[in-house]
Amino acid sequence: MKPFFRIRLVKRSIISLMQIIGLILFILYICVPLSFRFMPAFQRHLVFLPYLRWPVGVDFGDPSSEGLNGARNLYLETDADVKVGVWHVLPESLIDVKFETAEEALGVGNPIILYLHGNSGSRAGSHRIELYKILQSLNYHVITMDYRGYADSTLTYMSEDGAVTDATAVYDYIKKYSKDSMIVVWGHSLGTGVASRTVRQLCDDKRSPNRLILESPFNNLRDEIRNHPLSYIFRPIPAFDWFFTEPLVANNLAFDSDKHIARIDCPILILHAQDDAVIPIILAKKLYKEALNSRPAGWPPVQFIEFHQDFGYAHKYICRAPELPSIIHEYIDSGLDSRKSGSQLIV
């Protein structure tokens, strides 16, 4: 090949490469920010990630196919034309007990965990099932649900209000049949935002659960977006907040846990891993500090347990901590109401 043609080929390659880079930069720094700012549906899908449906091929009607013994599937109507898929996992000691109705088991006296999962996936996520099995072995009921828009629940408009409405309706179902059984609301990741607002509203209505557990929580969704690793490439944009955080409140995606926690009058336990890159532990500590500073001194305690980064639990695998069963057993079955707030532990 003659030198002249080589030079032309190199120039064309450079021009093509620059065009590709320019297109990528245009999409990243023009299209994505403008879409997030002016397209609420785009915001909702990025916050909830309902289209990331793993594992695939789940038979929600048969929880045993996912390795859960003593579990049943049901659907609850939570709103007009909205039904959510729910699994009820029985305590280990009740698996072989015959009840006239499935709901009768809720009134036997075992503690009941209402589990509110984070974004993406479904109630059949592998790390979620790991946790259900631990709670089942501790002889707790687990009621776990998929919010509207997820899995086999009604596919419809998703919002903070919608998720809280779904969670409240499932709580009401539990309350109806639980008699005097202890009810614990457990939220993970985005589910901590759902749990915080749901429990705050229940407390306002004098219907507080007995315990609240917040696993890998943020203080509010605006700070979470500012600190999320995927937002790193957008942070140099001068109008970052105008594009990415200011629209959240207007579009019903605030998840202001730091505001709600001030009005939660039941005991609170916060769990977080030091190596959580999705929700940095600093956000959980901000939430913890807000709880300590804003709740009346005479209210039940708020406690914080962080898991050392050397264990590698990150965002989803605190369920694998050997200490977790004893931590949860002590928190649920012991008289924590008498303890003082401000207890902080590293394991």
UniProtKB/TrEMBL annotation:
GO terms for biological process: monoacylglycerol catabolic process; phosphatidylserine catabolic process. It comes from Daphnia magna. The keyword Cell membrane does not apply. Residues 130-225 form the Serine aminopeptidase S33 domain. This is Monoacylglycerol lipase ABHD12. One of its GO terms (molecular function) is monoacylglycerol lipase activity. Keywords: Membrane, Transmembrane, Transmembrane helix. One of its GO terms (cellular component) is endoplasmic reticulum membrane. The keyword Repressor does not apply. SUPFAM superfamilies: alpha/beta-Hydrolases. The chain crosses the membrane at residues 20-39. Signal peptide: none annotated. It holds the Pfam family Hydrolase_4.
